[in-house]
Structure formats: C-alpha cells, structure tokens
Automatic annotation (TrEMBL):
InterPro entries: MFS (IPR011701), MFS_dom (IPR020846), MFS_trans_sf (IPR036259), MFS_Transporter (IPR051788). Its main location: membrane. GO terms for cellular component: plasma membrane. The keyword Transmembrane applies. The keyword Lyase does not apply. This is Major facilitator superfamily (MFS) profile domain-containing protein.
C-alpha cells in the first residue's frame, strides 16, 4: 500500500517540460535533485527571484498607502466635523466594499487572470485616494465614503492574485516564504504611519498628500504587474501553457469555461470554509488589536496616549519578527503544529494582557499575543492555495471570512467596551482563538485533488483518500489531439480520458515546501 505522504511527494515532484526532457536524454531525469540538496541556482531562477521581491514591494506598498491614510483620520474627522460614531460608520464602508467584492474577485481571477484583477485594483486605488483627499477638502462626507468603499473593493480585488502568486513563489522555491510577504505589509504599515504622522505635523493638505499617494501608487503597481503574474493566469492559458506544438497535429482546443457556478464551488468545500474560519479568527485577533489595543492601554492603566502607541508598536513588531524569521519553524514542524502552538501562545498572551494587574506584565502579554498571531493568516492562505488551479476561488473565500471579521469586530467590541472596558472586552476574542486552535488540522498540506473536492460516489465507501477525483479535470478524451499531446508532457492519460489539472500546470511542477 502506498503511504499518503509518498503520494503527496509524487504530485509535488518536478515535472520536466518537453524541452527539458529532450535536452536531458541520456542523463539524469530533468528536475531531479539529490536528496537533501538544494537545487542549483540557474538563470531560470531569475524571474522567480524578481517575482518574489516585486511581490514583497507590492505588499509593502499596500501597507504603506493604507497606514498613511489611517494616520490622517484625525485630520479627516476635524475637516468634516464628524463625531466618533459618524466616523465609525463612514469607516465601515471599506469593510463593506471588501466583503462585497471578495467572491467576485475569485471569479474574476479564475476567468480573466490576475493581470486584469491587479490592473483594476490599481485604477480603483488611484480613484479611491483622490476621493479620500477630495472629500474632506470639499466638505463632502459622501465623497469620502465612496473613496473608503473603493479602497475596500480595490484591496479585495488585488488581494486574491497577490496571495495566489505568493503561494506560487513558495511552491517554486520549495520552502516556506509566504509569511515574509505579510511581514512586508507590516513593515510598509509602519513606514506609512510615519509618513502620515510627518504629513500631519507639517500640516500637509489632505488632497495634496493623497494625490501624491495615488500617482506614486499607480506608477509602482503598473511597473510591477508584468513581473508577478504567473500562477493567476486565466485557467485556459494555464492548462495549455506547456503543451508543445507538433507538426501535423491539430492544435488542441482550449477547455471551455464551466461558468460562474464552478467559480463559486469553493464555498461548498468543507475544508476551504473551515480554513476561512481559521483566518476569520486570526483577522479578528489582529484587527481587534489594531483598533482597540492602544485605547485599552490608555483607559485600562490610566496611561498617556504615547504609552498606548508604544504598546501597540510592540505588538506589530512581534508579529513582523515572527513573519520574517518564523518560516523555518513551518518548514521543520509543519503547518498544523505551528498553527496550534501559535494559537496557544496568542491565547495565553491575550489572557495575560486582559487580567494582568500591572502594565509591564500586560505588555509582556501583548508581545506574546503578537508572536502567536503572526502566522495564522499566512498559513491559512498557503493551505487555501495548495491546488494552484483552484487557488483563486479558495483565497477569495477565506478573504471573505477575513472581511466579515473586519466588519463585525469594531461595533461588537465597541458595545462590549462600554460595559466591560476596552481591555476586558478584548478578552472576548479568546473564544475565536480556541476555535482556531481546534481547527488547526485543516491547514495540513493535501494533494490538489483532495483539497476540498469530494471523491466520486463509487469510491466513497473505501474512505476519503481512495481514488480521489481530480479537482479541475481537463477532458482530454474530448479532443484526441489534446490527449496525445498531454500524454507526451505528463505521461499516459487515465482510463477515463482525463488528466488532473495540477499535472498540466507548470507552476505546480515544483518541489513542495513541507
């Protein structure tokens, strides 16, 4: 009997292209790497290295622009003479925009590709920041609300291809690096907060600041997009990308799209939905700290605002350090063990902060909270992206769960804080952390054909791992030319005339990170 781990390793093993196979005749198989040895760096690795750093830049840009706007919220509030409640209602427009767009983003990336999604996101961000600057300048709350709504829409549309491409880079590198992209966002957020603070100190007009933000952000994104889109190409393009042309053989037909319903199939996958719950708990933890931690320190310990900001800074710093350096832990111990341990550390840190009698002890709890909260979102994104052909729809689903947390947490915690105080109200999110720890096994790496797609009815009696159905099959039997060419690239087509989508996907043909 074949051990399940062996099956995973075979699926993730490098698949030589037709060109590589021909050039390696008489030598070791293409893509073969001695056990325990790192692949030799070649010129073919340069696009991968470039894609990694360009993606890092895009994540950092998102953090920078978003935080530079948040740092000017006091100026926006004063310019429009908004109350705290009115401002909170306007800010919710961003979460509503992200939630409304999350599922559509998955469909868009699946059908049209990440390049189109990123370009639409670029246009949306540019318009959004112009409106955010124009609203307070012209005294128009509706303009501001539309701008904030567009930031949520643009973030949701761009977030799916960015995470899909980051997971692709991780697969092709053969080791865990996805948390580092999220660390880049955190670093950008710190820089953006500083830029916003300096702009506020110099009394830079809001319209001027956000016009510059729109222009520079647009240029940055437009220059970056051509270097990062590989895994989030349209499905048809990916399936046929590595099928070589053969003289005398008709070109195969591109597989037909399966419609909107197929793009939404991820919502019916138990594993994907439960990963979404894990990410929702993580987003609730991180988002609650962003919104309420500084205020909880100020009110709970009767400290000045600067102390609250410093404690929040320690939370962000702890998260950033773990996202940069904690990837080795994932490679060594695996996703499940790291997520489970992270959840426990985060839970203990939150409880210490909530009930500590002194500020230094509470500060230590905040650091532990940040250390534990760092890796949950990247691990969930990586798990949702195990099958490259279905990654876009699944990332969109788990992103929607994150948007729900961002939408519900501020008002619910605000209501609880009125009676419990902000510090004790934060303890309520411990329940979500417990749920996340209990579901940690769902982020385990699986074969693409098993990442949420049920086995056929005839095989279910033999267990969930028997005769798995390919997640997104390509009907090679419908086109003899395609069947012949697929056989040359990935070996004989199965008895049912179908080849798994991941076998046809050159992006997935790379060593899998453990």
């Amino acid at each position: 009997m074949t051990h399940p781990r062996d099956r995973v390793d075979r699926v993730a093993a490098p698949v030589p292209s037709a060109t590589a196979a021909r050039s390696s005749a008489g030598s070791a198989p293409a893509g073969a790497v001695p056990a325990g040895a790192a692949p030799a760096r070649t010129s073919a690795d340069l696009p991968l290295v470039r894609a990694r750093w360009v993606l890092m830049g895009l994540f950092a840009l998102n953090g920078l622009t978003f935080s530079s706007w948040l740092a000017r919220i006091p100026s926006v509030r004063d310019a429009l003479e908004l109350s705290t409640g009115q401002l909170g209602s306007v800010l919710l427009a961003g979460s509503l925009g992200a939630l409304a767009t999350a599922t559509v983003a998955g469909v868009l990336v699946t059908r049209r590709g990440g390049r189109i999604a990123l370009l639409l996101s670029t246009v949306g961000f540019a318009l959004a920041y112009v409106l955010i600057g124009a609203g307070p300048t012209l005294g128009s709350v509706p303009l501001l609300a539309v701008g904030i709504f567009l930031t949520g829409v643009s973030f949701a549309v761009g977030n799916v291809p960015l995470n899909v491409e980051s997971a692709s880079v991780e697969r092709r590198m053969g080791r865990t690096v996805l948390p580092q992209f999220h660390a880049a966002f955190s670093i950008g957020a710190v820089l953006g907060s500083g830029i916003g603070a300096v702009a506020a100190h110099l009394d830079v007009p809001l319209l001027s600041q956000f016009l510059v933000t729109a222009v520079l952000g647009t240029v940055w994104r437009v220059l970056s997009i051509p270097h990062v889109v590989v895994a989030s190409r349209p499905v048809r393009e990916r399936v046929l990308a590595d099928v070589p042309a053969t003289p005398g053989v008709p070109a195969p037909r591109a597989p037909r799209g399966r419609g909107l319903g197929s793009a939404l199939d991820a919502w019916r996958e138990p594993r994907t939905v439960l990963i979404g719950v894990v990410i929702m708990a993580a987003a609730l933890s991180e988002g609650s700290a962003n919104d309420w931690l500084a205020l909880a320190v100020v009110d709970g310990f009767d400290q000045p605002e600067a102390v609250g900001a410093a404690v929040f800074g320690s939370f962000v710093a702890a998260m950033t350090v773990v996202r940069l350096l904690g990837t080795r832990l994932i490679d060594r111990y695996g996703r499940v063990a790291v997520l489970r341990a992270s959840g426990v550390v985060s839970l203990v840190g939150l409880l210490v902060f909530g009930f500590a009698p002194t500020l230094p002890l509470a500060g230590a709890g905040v650091v532990a909270w940040g250390l534990g909260a760092a890796l949950a979102v990247p691990l969930g994104i990586a798990a949702a992206s195990d099958d490259p052909m279905l990654a876009a729809g699944r990332v969109a689903v788990v992103s929607a769960f994150s948007s729900v947390a961002s939408l519900a947490a501020p008002p619910l915690l605000g209501l609880a804080a009125e009676s419990l105080g902000a510090r004790h109200a934060l303890v309520l999110i411990a329940a979500a952390m417990v749920v996340s720890v209990s579901l940690s096994s769902r982020v385990a790496r699986v074969e693409p054909s098993e990442a949420g797609t049920p086995a056929p009815a005839a095989a279910t009696s033999a267990g969930p791992r028997s005769a798995p159905t390919p997640a997104t099959p390509t009907a090679a039997s419908d086109d003899p030319a395609l069947a012949a060419l697929v056989s040359r690239v990935v070996g004989p087509v199965g008895e049912d005339g179908r080849a798994s989508a991941h076998e046809l996907d050159p992006v997935y043909a790379a060593p899998a990170a453990r």
